[in-house]
Amino acid sequence: MDCDEFRTQGKVMIDYICQYLETLNQRRVIPNIEPNYLRPLLPDEAPVEPEDWDVIMEDIEKKIMPGITHWQHPRFHAYFPSGNSFPSILADMLSDAIGAMGFSWAASPACTELETIMLDWFGKAIGLPDQFLSNKEGSIGGGVIQGSASECVLVSMLAARAHMLVRLKKQYPMVEDGVLLSKLIAYCSKEAHSCVEKAAMICFVKLRILEPDEKNALRGKTLMMAMEEDETMGLIPFFVSTTLGTTSCASFDNLQEIGPVCQKFPGVWLHVDAAYAGNAFICPELKYLLKGVEYADSFNTNPNKFLLIAFDCSTMWVRDKLKLTKALVVNPLYLEHTHSKDLSIDFRHWGIPLSRRFRSLKLWFVFRRFGISGLQNYIRHHIKLAKKFEELVLKDTRFEVCNEVKLGLVCFRLKGTDQLNKQLLLNINESGRLHMVPAQVNEKYIIRFSVNDVNAKEADIDIAWQIIKEYAEDVLAQNIE
Ligand code: PLP
């Protein structure tokens, strides 16, 4: 494909994308196919000879679209939003065209510098304390884009582990690293995302999963008791992962209590995972949810969830960048450059991969095209729609709401057994008209309704509620125990 063909086919692709997004509501939300549907539709081997672009494009509708779960569909209320917007799509196009690998400052200076500036813009906009921003006097912190929240948690845990092992090595120089490692223990709440458990598996450390309170918040006292108990058992607390906006029910751990507890244990690293909720702190009226963040060593949020940015873009800030990079620096000759280490950042030391896409471009385009006010309006609108849904549920005495609705997520269920609710959700999802996923909240099976669609309107909430009620009447009539 040369530039002329790309020009022509690029326009065709833009038309296809617009048509796809504008007519999404005419499709089923989830596909109606069985596993391995695709293999019989494709040849066994890659083609030896080049194919015409038109032929390739035809296969999109015929073979790929039937197997797509449409995350941008107005009836897609599962998980959390997969953020998207045209400025973000355009930025990814340009990033792909530039094709730079910004692993060091020298490898593409604008990639690194724009990333640093965007993380300062965004950190400031959501109200992070100055110590996380790289352009504040006296700050030794800063921000970086990782591929996912899971990566942010893992990288923080790796840094915390390295930091604690150095401390312990000074105290016990004759003890083997492996022995010290076997003593390290991390903490999170039962409501934390499973990526914390995965990070602990990778880091080869123990993880103690703690009970949250009745509002699904991890409390300081629970943490304190666990850490003290473990210390008496000869273990060494080194990492606490907290969540602002949990995956199941968007609850908030109590950072104001947890922070001072962590400070009682020298060298313990406090991480705050705000993958979904962190974006909402761009609204001044929601910044109260961030209270206690000043105790954190690291913080992450995913603009690719709740801020109109396409995957992948998970922003992470640390209070002390040296503590982070010490765990991750390797320096082969072929990656060295002559520019001052004090003035230039090499982001390869801030994460696991070497090569990195030019992801800050999409933050820059979106911040500029929407403005902070546009992004605030977007978040507020989604919260308003969630509140509307909550109101509809509360008005119907057959249902109950199971979380405190502060953002765009409503957890609800039919009053009755878990089995009844499982059947309700199964029937709705099988219909292909609406998609939601379940969770376990306060020992009950609940259904999560997340306001996701970028262009969601009040009418969409009414339609969703009508569909839910229709299937609820069906399952209630069946007298499921
Ligand atoms: N943390 C929280 C609170 C989440 O809700 C999620 C996903 O929804 C994750 C972490 C994992 O995110 P990622 O897919 O970016 O790894």
TrEMBL record:
Q: What highest taxon heads this organism's lineage?
A: Eukaryota
Q: Which GO terms describe its cellular component?
A: cytoplasm
- Name-wise, this protein is Tyrosine decarboxylase
Keyword vocabulary terms for this entry: Decarboxylase, Lyase, Pyridoxal phosphate
Which organism is this protein's natural source? Answer: Acanthoscelides obtectus
Q: Which residues carry this modification: N6-(pyridoxal phosphate)lysine?
A: 305
What family does this chain come from, according to its entry?
Belongs to the group II decarboxylase family.
High-level lineage:
Eukaryota, Metazoa, Ecdysozoa, Arthropoda, Hexapoda
Q: Name the cofactor(s) required for activity, per the record.
A: pyridoxal 5'-phosphate
Molecular function GO labels: carboxy-lyase activity; pyridoxal phosphate binding
Q: Span within the entire protein?
A: 1 to 481 of 632
Set out the biological process GO terms recorded for this chain's protein: amino acid metabolic process; carboxylic acid metabolic process
